[in-house]
Structure formats: structure tokens, C-alpha cells
């Protein structure tokens, strides 16, 4: 046991470290315990000893009771097998690992044997797991980092959506409890249920890397018309609220494939319809430019 004692005129700071390096409950130094017993033998009461040494009265009483029972104030041996590695041995292993993080357990075992503390490899591994260790990560080249950054930027433009069912009373899933035998029907060990089921609501929502979008309550059973209305009223508005820009990817789950596929055909038709109009406008603009160009050429040739 290594005992660190810092004395000041009015404050005692004490910490008890075991041979395994794990801090136990705080204990008074042995010299201070002897002073408590000496004052008690001289006739002083618990209150006077507590006030003079700045120690709680309960601590004074427990130390005096221990002295009367065992005849000593020293820390008695505790239950359990002693640790194979001492506090000094653990610190030495940590220093070796810091010097060479790639050192093997066999080499650490040999170093520990040279210090006079022979132990198994599993003991050394368990001791080192209590100290900070480096994390494993894949070796990334500049090409990998660039690809990951591009993938991250693409994912920032994704808008995910899904529906969920929320129970208004209780949970339909299994629940596990810690209980004693014969207490299965106690109120604290049961999950209340009702005959009418308690009811539930369906919600549609969307989210992206920037945050959550709109949340819509679905009344009745979902069908093509309702799903299309939800997308018409909330999809673009959610994208605007999340500042996804004019180009983003809409991601939805694979459930309810029938009417979702139908809705996708509608949106594809809308996009094709928009693109057709754009091409018509471009064609008209090009025709007007050609007509003006030919007209200007005729005017220039007539003047010449």
C-alpha cells in the first residue's frame, strides 16, 4: 500500500492506494490514528478530539472502537487474494508501452519477470486495459480522404422519409424485468394493458443531415392519394426549410411499394413535362436568334 499524505495547518488530504493501483475509500494516516487513541487514553472525549484534529466524530469513534477490538490502529488485511502486480509494477508496464506502443505481451512479461513480479500474459493485458490505449483506424491515403469527403457532401444532400406507428397506451413489444420468484404478478413487475388496445397514430416525417423536416399525422389508412398529397405539401417545403438547395436526393423506404411506385411515375412525368417545356423554350429562342441573324444579313447586303 502506498499512502500519499499532504499536511497543512488545518486540512488533511489523504488517499489510500492499493497494490493494484485502484483507489479505495479514504483512510487516515496511521500516525493520526495513534494520536486519536493517545488523546482518548488521556481522558479526552470524542467531541474534543474531533474539534482538535478537525476530524468527524464518527471517524474518531470508529478508530477507537477498532483499537479496543483488535488492539491496533493499523489497516488489517482485507479479504481476497492479493494482486500479482504491484502499483509500481503496473506503472512500469505503462511506461514500457508508452516508450514502444507496439511491444508484445511476451516482452512485457519478460520485463515484469526481471522486476521480480512473475505473472501470466492475461494479467498483464488486464492491467494495461485500465490505462489509455490507442484506437485502431484504417490507413487512409489522400485519394481515400477525398472520396470520403465527396461521399459526405453527397449525403448532406439526402432527404430521408419514413412512416412510424406510435402506441397511445403502453407498448406491444416484450419487456423484461428483474424479479424474485413468486413476484411475477406484482404491480411493479407487470405491463398494464387495456382491452380496446389503446389506439395508435401514424406519422410521416423526413430528415436530413441539417435536421428534421415536417411531421404529418396520417388520418385513416394510407393510400396513393394521401401519400401524393403529403409529398406535394411537405416534400419541397421541408427541403427549403433544411436549405438543401434546388438539387437534392429524396430517399424513402421499400414499404408500400405499389402506390410509392405510382407516385414516382407521377413525379417522373412531371419532371419530363418540365424538361419538354424547357426544350421548347430553347428551340423557340434559337429559331428567333437565327431569324434575327438572317434579317440583319439581308439588311447589310442590301445597303452594300
UniProtKB/TrEMBL annotation:
InterPro entries: Homeodomain-like_sf (IPR009057), HTH_SB (IPR057667), RNaseH_sf (IPR036397), Transposase_5 (IPR052338), Transposase_Tc1-like (IPR002492), WH-like_DNA-bd_sf (IPR036388). GO terms for biological process: DNA integration; DNA transposition. Keywords: Membrane, Transmembrane, Transmembrane helix. The chain crosses the membrane at residues 266-293. Residues 23-74 form the Sleeping Beauty transposase HTH domain. GO terms for molecular function: DNA binding. Residues 90-150 form the Transposase Tc1-like domain. Pfam families: HTH_SB, HTH_Tnp_Tc3_2. This is Transposable element Tc1 transposase.
Amino acid at each position: 500500500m502506498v499512502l500519499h499524505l499532504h499536511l497543512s495547518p488545518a486540512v488533511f488530504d489523504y488517499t489510500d492506494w492499493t497494490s493494484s493501483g485502484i483507489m479505495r475509500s479514504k483512510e487516515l494516516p496511521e500516525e493520526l490514528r495513534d494520536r486519536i487513541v493517545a488523546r482518548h487514553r488521556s481522558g479526552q472525549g470524542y467531541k474534543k478530539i474531533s474539534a482538535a484534529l478537525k476530524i468527524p466524530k464518527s471517524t474518531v469513534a470508529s478508530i477507537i472502537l477498532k483499537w479496543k477490538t483488535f488492539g491496533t490502529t493499523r489497516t488489517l488485511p482485507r479479504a481476497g487474494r492479493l494482486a500479482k502486480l504491484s502499483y509500481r509494477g503496473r506503472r512500469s508496464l505503462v511506461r514500457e508501452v508508452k516508450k514502444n506502443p507496439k511491444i508484445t505481451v511476451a516482452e512485457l512479461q519478460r520485463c515484469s519477470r526481471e522486476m521480480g513480479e512473475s505473472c501470466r500474459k492475461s494479467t498483464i493485458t488486464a492491467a494495461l486495459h485500465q490505462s489509455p490505449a490507442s484506437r485502431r483506424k484504417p490507413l487512409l491515403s489522400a485519394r481515400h480522404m477525398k472520396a470520403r469527403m465527396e461521399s459526405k457532401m453527397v449525403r448532406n444532400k439526402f432527404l430521408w422519409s419514413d412512416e412510424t406507428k406510435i402506441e397511445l397506451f403502453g407498448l406491444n413489444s416484450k419487456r423484461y424485468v428483474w424479479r424474485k420468484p413468486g413476484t411475477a404478478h406484482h404491480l411493479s413487475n407487470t405491463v398494464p394493458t387495456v382491452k380496446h388496445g389503446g389506439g395508435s397514430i401514424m406519422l410521416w416525417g423526413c430528415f436530413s443531415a441539417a435536421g428534421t423536416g415536417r411531421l404529418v399525422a396520417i388520418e385513416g389508412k394510407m393510400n396513393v392519394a394521401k401519400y401524393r398529397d403529403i409529398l406535394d405539401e411537405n416534400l419541397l417545403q421541408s427541403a427549403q426549410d433544411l436549405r438543401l438547395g434546388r438539387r437534392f436526393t429524396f430517399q424513402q423506404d421499400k414499404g408500400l411499394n405499389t402506390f410509392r411506385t405510382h407516385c414516382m411515375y407521377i413525379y417522373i412525368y412531371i419532371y419530363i413535362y418540365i424538361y419538354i417545356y424547357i426544350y421548347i423554350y430553347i428551340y423557340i429562342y434559337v429559331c428567333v436568334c437565327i431569324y434575327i441573324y438572317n434579317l440583319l444579313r439581308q439588311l447589310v447586303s442590301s445597303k452594300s
